[in-house]
Design brief:
Blueprint: H1 9-31, H2 38-79, H3 85-92
Length: 94
């Protein structure tokens, strides 16, 4: 993987889409709380469970992306034989 990119555009789009779905579903839950009855309660229960899974997946994706970024940083440091952070910072501005 290119050390300048921590993830692909597809992964970035997937994470962004997942965040949007979560936000919209949370809004839907909040905006439908006034509706009562078994069908509404069951739908909210299913949506709440789906939101929990989606949030777990989002966290997993973001942790994986962070791990890739850290690995790319370690690889760049090893490649350039950096002994300190100053060389990394200076290289970032080139």
């Amino acid at each position: 993987m290119d050390s300048h990119h921590d993830s692909s555009p597809d992964q970035d789009r997937l994470i962004g889409d997942l965040r949007a779905v979560i936000e919209n579903a949370e809004g839907l839950l909040g905006n439908t709380s006034q509706y009562t009855g078994t069908p509404y309660e069951e739908a909210r229960t299913r949506l709440t469970a789906a939101l929990l899974k989606a949030n777990c997946e989002l966290e997993r994706f973001e942790e994986a992306r962070l791990a890739r970024m850290m690995e790319a940083t370690r690889a760049a440091i090893a490649l350039h034989a950096d002994q300190g952070g100053e060389a990394c910072i200076m290289r970032a501005f080139k």
